[in-house]
Amino acid sequence: MRKIAIVIIIVFLLFGCGGWKHDFNFRIHSIERELVTSGSFFLGSGSVNGKMYFFMWRDWNGGLKFVRLSHDISTVYEDENNHPYVEVYKHWNLGQKYKIHVPQNTILKEFRL
Question: Which residues face 87 on adjacent strands?
Answer without folding.
Answer: 25, 99
